[in-house]
């Protein structure tokens, strides 16, 4: 499980310092603090960024929105972001609203509010609203990562690192090559959200990352995965074997 | 002699007149019935019916008019013949003899009463002194009457023939016919005709100078005429006698007869004059009537014009009055509105002034307190009285907090009033928002030793604008802390929600409020009041802001409170519908 990488675009050092402090305390990884538009772009494209916190006004100009508009142009490079602003000026908001998905935080804010705003940004960005505060789910699934809220802190796991997922009741055990942890999400939901070309179900309780399969022993109903994990293959799901070229 | 001759001619002329009138009176009877039958047969011919009616009433002018109308649009030869007949007689009666002759000439040979036409033509010829022609007609009639019996008096025809001969000076033939007619007339006892016949005979003899034979007839005629009631006959008889006596040189008698003649002539003239006068009077009366009618018509016209003018002017006046009333009412209405607006504005202005005074007072006192506190702080720092520093700093922080809240509310209020604020309702996790707000107040509550409980259901999502929701909770929480005594309890929880609304309750065990205060708080009006408690002076702005924001978010506010026990402020917020 990795920390979330946050890029802060803020021109007032006092505020950015406070932000960095809060974020590091809550196990976020601040990849950089940009004080102007150019720095922001540079930092954004140089680093792996999961969420961007953008102050609307940089040096008295609404460059924050310009930045959002710029990264909005390239859809694939787009990341969730949160606007910071001290005024509820409608004109600014109307402009900011066009850079969807849009979430904002009004200054002054406290620790809880910034964390909440980050979570909201992720939820909205991946179109899975009201996940982190519901009682039956704590994970947002994106194309390449799972965002997991663990003990009030957001963490992420690269999807490609997952070896297999074992479902237990309302929980899912995520097994990566290096660690194993539990997330709160139903099987049906996670299957819906995961890329079907990368993951397939081998059993009522197992979802397997296809790229991690080492060997399929049909007779023993076993699938052997990387790291020598063994997963049961039930008759119902045997069909997926056909997707592979079988050497005879 | 010549003188006498001329007299006789005169006499003859006079005599002929009654002959015709008598003729027409008697002859009508048969033709009358025939005409009636025709008019019944041709009922649809209105003009013919009218013509015959007027004809029988001897109204000659009308007869002429209607017979002409009938002829102009009729093709029935029989009817046209009748019409010509009517017209002929009418013209004859009006002494237009040539016209009459023309009309009679137009009658076809198949006409039933052709002999009558001949008779009439004969009479006309006689009248025009064309005796030969007349004789021819009369002889034709006499012949016809021999063949078939008619209603016509044979005596008249014979008499007329006699007359013709007389005038043609064929005296023996005249004598024969006249005597024959006298004989017939004596049988018929037609006195008038007898008189004229006698006179004619007398004339016959007289012109032949057979005075001895003539005079008895004259006398007979004269005596008979005395009994008759025809002025014309009386006059002629008297005149004849006068001429006779004059010729006998019996001048005194002649004078007497002449006088008698004059009397009869006068009476005839009188009658004529009376008629003429009556006619004149009638004409005059008609003229008068016509004038009256004209005057009345003119008056009527004038009256109609007047009435129209009156109606028009009254309509105009009414319209004018209506528009006047309309504008007057409009003006009253607008002035009423203006007055109401003015009152409202005055009230708002007063409120604004009060708000200013309270805000400035609050701000000034806050900043002033901060200043003095800072002075103390510096003093204590110089004296190295560190225990006191902590207390003062906390105090400062509280004051700064209060002032900040006031400013924040002011700003938000201004934004709300000017509608400048960004407002976007979305799904919000109520529990999280409450946590965010309470986070800032925890030190304050800890400072006042207040117990705090948060039991907001984690499953409640509301549909609201995040910032305004925060402002509401902040203000209410602030109020709860402000009105709580030390060691009090503040709890925020949700009541079981209805289908559309979430109920967020903020409860304190503070001083509470009485019902009137509660009512005033819930009122829509701008409310600013000084609290009884001097320590907790407020502008009421926070509460006002809350109410406005709740309304804007489509929520409701309710208060449950008991004095010295505590207050529950309940906000009903719209639920987020899409979320199960």
TrEMBL record, chain A:
Swiss-Prot/TrEMBL keywords: Phosphoprotein
Residues annotated with 4-aspartylphosphate modification: 55
Coiled coil: none
Protein name: Response regulator transcription factor
InterPro entries tied to this protein: CheY-like_superfamily, LytR-like, LytTR_DNA-bd_dom, Sig_transdc_resp-reg_receiver
Domain of life: Bacteria
Domain HTH LytTR-type: 146-234
Any single Pfam family the record assigns to this protein: Response_reg
Keyword Phosphoprotein: yes
Gene3D superfamilies: 3.40.50.2300, LytTr DNA-binding domain (2.40.50.1020)
From TrEMBL, chain B:
Keyword field contains Kinase: yes
Domain Histidine kinase stretches: 358-577
EC number(s) given by UniProt: 2.7.13.3
Membrane spanning residue stretches: 309-328
UniProt-listed InterPro entries: HATPase_C_sf, HATPase_dom, His_kinase_dom, HisK_dim/P_sf, Sig_transdc_His_kin-like_C, TPR-like_helical_dom_sf, TPR_rpt
GO MF: histidine phosphotransfer kinase activity; phosphorelay sensor kinase activity
SMART domains listed in its UniProt record: HATPase_c, TPR
GO cellular component: plasma membrane
Record field: catalytic activity: ATP + protein L-histidine = ADP + protein N-phospho-L-histidine
Signal peptide (UniProt feature, chain positions): 1-21
Keywords of the record: Kinase, Membrane, Signal, TPR repeat, Transferase, Transmembrane, Transmembrane helix
TPR repeat intervals: 155-188
Name the UniProt record assigns to this protein: histidine kinase
Species whose genome carries this gene: Flavobacterium geliluteum
């Amino acid at each position: 499980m990795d920390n979330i990488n946050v890029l802060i675009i803020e021109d007032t050092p006092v505020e950015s310092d406070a932000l960095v402090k809060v974020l590091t305390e809550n196990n976020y990884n601040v990849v950089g603090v940009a004080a102007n538009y150019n720095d922001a772009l540079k930092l954004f494209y140089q680093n792996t960024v999961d969420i961007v916190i953008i102050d609307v006004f940089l040096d008295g100009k609404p460059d924050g929105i310009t930045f959002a508009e710029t990264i909005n142009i390239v859809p694939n490079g787009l990341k969730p972001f949160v606007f910071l602003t001290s005024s509820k000026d409608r004109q600014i908001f109307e402009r900011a609203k066009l850079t969807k998905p849009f979430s904002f935080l009004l200054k002054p804010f406290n620790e809880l509010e910034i964390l909440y705003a980050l979570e909201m940004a992720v939820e909205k960005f991946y179109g899975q609203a009201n996940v982190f505060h519901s009682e039956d789910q704590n994970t947002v699934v994106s194309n390449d990562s799972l965002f997991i809220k663990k003990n009030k802190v957001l963490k992420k796991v690269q999807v490609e690192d997952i070896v297999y997922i074992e479902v237990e009741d309302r929980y899912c055990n995520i097994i990566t090559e290096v660690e194993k942890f539990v997330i709160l999400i139903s099987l049906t939901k996670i299957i819906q959200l995961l890329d079907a070309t990368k993951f397939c179900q081998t059993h009522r309780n197992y979802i397997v990352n296809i790229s991690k399969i080492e060997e399929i022993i049909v007779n023993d109903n076993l699938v052997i995965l990387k790291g020598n994990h063994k997963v049961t293959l039930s008759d119902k799901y045997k069909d997926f074997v056909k997707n592979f070229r079988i050497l005879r | 002699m010549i003188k006498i001759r001329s007299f006789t001619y005169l006499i003859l002329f006079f005599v002929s007149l009654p002959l015709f009138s008598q003729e027409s009176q008697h002859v009508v009877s048969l033709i009358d019935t025939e005409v009636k039958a025709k008019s019944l047969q041709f009922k649809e011919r209105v003009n013919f019916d009218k013509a015959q009616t007027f004809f029988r009433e001897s109204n000659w002018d009308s007869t002429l008019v209607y017979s002409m109308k009938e002829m102009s649009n009729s093709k029935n030869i029989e009817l046209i013949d009748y019409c010509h007949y009517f017209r002929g007689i009418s013209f004859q009666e009006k002494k237009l003899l040539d016209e009459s002759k023309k009309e009679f000439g137009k009658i076809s040979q198949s006409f039933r009463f052709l002999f009558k036409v001949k008779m009439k033509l004969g009479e006309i010829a006689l009248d025009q002194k064309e005796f030969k022609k007349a004789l021819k007609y009369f002889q034709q009639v006499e012949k016809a009457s021999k063949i078939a019996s008619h209603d016509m008096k044979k005596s008249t025809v014979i008499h007329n023939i006699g007359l013709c001969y007389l005038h043609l000076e064929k005296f023996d033939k005249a004598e024969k016919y006249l005597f024959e007619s006298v004989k017939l007339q004596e049988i018929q006892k037609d006195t008038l005709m007898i008189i004229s016949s006698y006179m004619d005979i007398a004339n016959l003899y007289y012109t032949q100078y057979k005075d001895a034979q003539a005079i008895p007839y004259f006398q007979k005629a004269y005596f008979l005429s005395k009994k008759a009631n025809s002025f014309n006959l009386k006059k002629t008889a008297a005149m004849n006698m006068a001429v006779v006596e004059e010729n006998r040189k019996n001048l005194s008698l002649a004078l007497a007869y002449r006088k008698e003649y004059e009397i009869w002539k006068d009476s005839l003239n009188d009658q004529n004059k009376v008629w003429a006068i009556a006619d004149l009077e009638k004409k005059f009366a008609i003229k008068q009537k016509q004038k009256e009618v004209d005057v009345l018509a003119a008056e009527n016209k004038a009256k109609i014009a007047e009435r129209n003018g009156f109606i028009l002017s009254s309509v105009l006046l009414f319209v004018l009055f209506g528009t006047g009333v309309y504008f007057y009412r409009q003006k009253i209405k607008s002035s009423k509105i203006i007055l109401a607006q003015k009152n409202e504005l005055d009230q708002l202005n007063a409120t604004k002034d009060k708000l200013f005074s309270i805000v400035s007072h609050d701000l000034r006192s806050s900043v002033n307190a901060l200043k003095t506190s800072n002075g103390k702080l510096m003093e204590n720092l110089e004296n190295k009285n560190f225990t006191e520093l902590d207390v003062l700093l906390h105090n400062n922080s509280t004051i700064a907090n209060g002032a900040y809240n006031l400013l924040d509310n002011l700003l938000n209020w201004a934004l709300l009033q000017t509608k400048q604020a960004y407002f976007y309702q979305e799904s919000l996790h109520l529990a999280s928002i409450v946590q965010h707000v309470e986070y800032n107040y925890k030190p304050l509550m800890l400072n006042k030793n207040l117990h705090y409980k948060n039991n907001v259901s984690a499953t409640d999502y509301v549909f609201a604008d995040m910032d305004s929701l925060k402002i509401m909770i902040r203000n209410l929480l602030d109020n709860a802390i402000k009105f709580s005594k030390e060691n009090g309890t503040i709890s925020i929880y949700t009541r079981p929600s209805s289908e559309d609304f979430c109920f967020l309750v903020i409860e304190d065990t503070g001083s509470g409020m009485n019902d009137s205060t509660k009512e005033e708080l819930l009122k829509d009006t701008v409310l600013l009041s000084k609290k009884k408690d001097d320590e907790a002076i407020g502008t009421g702005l926070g509460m006002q802001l809350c109410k406005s924001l709740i309304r804007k978010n489509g929520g409701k506010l309710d208060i449950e409170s008991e004095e010295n026990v505590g207050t529950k402020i309940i906000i009903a917020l719209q639920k987020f519908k899409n979320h199960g």
